[in-house]
Design goal:
Chains A, B: Catalyzes the oxidation of 3-carboxy-2-hydroxy-4-methylpentanoate (3-isopropylmalate) to 3-carboxy-4-methyl-2-oxopentanoate. The product decarboxylates to 4-methyl-2 oxopentanoate. Chains A, B: NAD(+) binds at residues 280-292. Chains A, B: Residues 2-347 form the Isopropylmalate dehydrogenase-like domain. Chains A, B: Homodimer. The structure is a homodimer. The relative contact order of chain A is 0.16. The two termini of chain A are 23 Å apart. In chain A, a hairpin with a 2-residue loop joins strand 6 (140-145) and strand 7 (148-158). Helices cover 40% and strands 23% of the residues of chain A. The first copy, chain A, has helices at residues 12-26, 40-46, 52-60, 84-93, 117-120, 159-174, 190-203, 216-225, 237-251, 294-306, 311-325, 340-351; strands at 2-8, 32-35, 63-68, 98-104, 124-130, 140-145, 148-158, 179-184, 210-215, 232-235, 258-266, 271-277. In chain A, strands 2-1-3-12-11-4-5-10-8-9 form a 10-stranded mixed sheet, sandwiched between helices. In chain A, strands 6-7 form a two-stranded antiparallel sheet. Chain A folds into 2 domains: 1-99 and 262-352, Isopropylmalate Dehydrogenase; 110-252, Isopropylmalate Dehydrogenase (3-Layer(aba) Sandwich). Chains A and B meet through strand 6, strand 7, helix 6, helix 7 and helix 8 of A and strand 6, strand 7, helix 6, helix 7 and helix 8 of B. Strand 7 of chain A pairs antiparallel with strand 7 of chain B, so a sheet runs across the interface. The complex binds 3-isopropylmalic acid (2 copies). One 3-isopropylmalic acid sits between chains B (84, 87-88, 241) and A (187-188, 217).
Chain lengths: 352, 352
């Protein structure tokens, strides 16, 4: 079993370190770790945010454990050298088309949510975001127009792309409460019309899943008004970017939420994927031991489950996290004073 | 002064009726009203959701008072005949490029918000959404691809389009708390890069306004986490569709929120515009006297202020609405039992 570890920028390295302590404690047989540079640090060391050797390392692995990218010192670079390009490059080069973002409150931590407690308690949803298409990866550029310089981006989805992500979403719904909401803007966009027609076609193969459709503006409204109505949401790259962040904000505890980006390639043990906390590089608190490593540790749990087929270990980690969250050890983001390392240590203790 | 009244579908006619009662009570001199069909009702009567005579009537007026469009019986029609096309057609034909959507809690009604009261109390923002460009009005269609049928939409903004809406937003900010947040996705989209560069260029002309920039995913997060940080938000058509609905949901009282869509043309008294409640046609409660007419009445107030230059009358209406909201007369949406007409009558009493 090979894991490529890409800690990246800002708080990425410090939270990844705690995840690696947890991994170490599991003492998995025949595990090899490789570590590579990605993001701003990679640009500074190798002149590119996603160096060829990092990409090769990721390709050769069964899974990628990713920290975070983003560095204010790189903000003025041309777009292709900026840290965020590394994550877009990994997604497209590795064919990571399915982004899974669970958003659920942690028992006892509902008060972290900006929503009223009765609404917060009901949140238990999964956003399945398409990650290889849409306006993200279409042709784009600048052209002249009667109104001066014009920026343009081609948005599109074809049936094969929609089918692939819709299958992932239907299957995810089958393992949950069997409700799937497909989000689009089919009253305006042709891209969405194909999206909706294709999802509807596929629904026949999943008679046990209840499917409905929602326009993205209404979905943004409903996520605030009554988030408890959602089980699995499937949507395109752009709408998924917005709605998954909104859903996380509704839960409230950004430092606690993990994500998986899965590809088509299967490994010996599961599906190839990249795993990352949803919080970013948080440069303002980097290197101060203030970051919460829970999201990184839960990303590791997702890695073990989806890419290495080690469900039992994943469950063990999740239970240890839950136990430590309900104990007294809390980081600054949860109103406590525990450091990154102390939180990691507490989770380690609960693991044993 | 000429007002084109387009009540439309569902609850549109019944809430518009209450707004007209209020207008009548103001006894404005030299006012002429014209009434036209729009939406599903127009399709049924004239074969088109936006008949030529309705468009002419709107063009000849100083302002349009709009109810709502949307009719489930029209859901299976080809897209160009669906009721929503009427509103898109009016926006483009009348050059209504600036959509103003104020979102603020009503004193005493903070408990309507799904957010915690301390967050809800802080909401007082204005979304300025561009309404004539973006992926809404670009070329679009279906093409063949290796992955089967492909839907595509061209997203774009040029400098002239951005400048026009940015000026509106800067000016709106000058009249409020002088803070402007421009929302885009400049880390991914060329459309957004031109958007951001153009907004930055213009900022020099408004040294009294504090400008910042936010990616749309972060904006969706911040609108839930701490909506009180926003004063004016300016953004494109697609992001504005999502964020303005999200902002309204944060306030909670959809039946109370109004909107203005302004064009470039000035009238003798102000700016030509179309005014509508943000709630839709709500076919499930249509014709039952359950709809809240407050949003329609507040839309009328916006009409008087922006298109007819009658600030004093607009303020009078807004005060009457506030007074009636804090009295005992409440509709079903606010936990009361007053009918559409009773709420309208109560506001009328407070007006006198
Ligand atoms: C950094 C950015 C390009 C990226 C995206 O938009 O996909 C991020 O917001 C995310 O959601 O992972
Ligand atoms: C009906 C629809 C086309 C419209 C839009 O997307 O603009 C609506 O959602 C709105 O915001 O007025």
């Amino acid at each position: 079993m090979k894991i490529a570890v890409l800690p990246g920028d800002g708080i990425g390295p410090e939270v990844t370190r705690e995840a690696l302590k947890v991994l170490d404690a599991l003492a998995l047989p025949q595990l090899t770790l490789f570590e590579g540079d990605v993001g701003g640090i990679a640009y500074k060391r190798h002149g590119h945010p996603l160096p060829a050797e990092t990409l090769e390392m990721a390709r050769a692995a069964d899974a990628v454990l990713f920290g975070a990218v983003g560095d204010p010192e790189c903000d003025t670079l041309p777009r292709e050298y900026r840290p965020e390009q590394a994550i877009l490059g990994l997604r497209s080069e590795l064919g990571l088309f399915a982004n899974l973002r669970p958003a659920a409150g942690f028992p006892g931590l509902e008060d972290l949510s900006p929503l009223k407690p009765e609404l917060a308690r009901g949140i238990d949803l999964l956003v399945v975001r398409e990650l290889n298409g849409d306006v993200y990866f279409g042709d784009k550029g600048e052209r002249d127009s009667a109104g001066g310089r014009e920026g343009w981006d081609d948005m599109s989805y074809n049936e094969a792309e929609v089918r692939r992500i819709a299958h992932s979403a239907f299957r995810a719904a089958q393992k949950r409460r069997k409700k799937l909401t497909s989000v689009d803007k089919a009253n305006v966009l042709e891209t969405s019309r194909i999206w909706r027609e294709t999802v509807i076609e596929l629904a026949g193969e999943y008679p046990d899943v209840e499917l409905d459709h929602m326009y993205v503006d209404n979905a943004a409204m409903q996520l605030v008004r009554s988030p408890g109505q959602f089980d699995v949401i499937v949507t395109g790259n752009l709408f998924g970017d917005i709605l998954s962040d909104q859903a996380s904000a509704c839960v409230g505890s950004i430092g606690l939420l993990a994500s998986a980006s899965l590809g088509e390639r299967t490994t010996e043990f599961g599906t190839f994927g990249l795993y990352e906390p949803i919080h970013g590089s948080a440069p303002d608190i980097a290197g101060q031991g203030k970051a919460n490593p829970v999201a990184a540790i839960l990303s590791l749990a997702m890695l073990l489950r989806h890419s290495l087929g080690r469900d039992a270990d994943a469950n063990r980690i999740e239970r240890a996290v839950a136990a430590s969250l309900s104990s007294e050890i809390r980081g600054a983001d949860l109103g406590g004073s525990a450091s990154t390392q102390e939180i990691g240590d507490a989770i380690l203790r609960h693991l044993q």
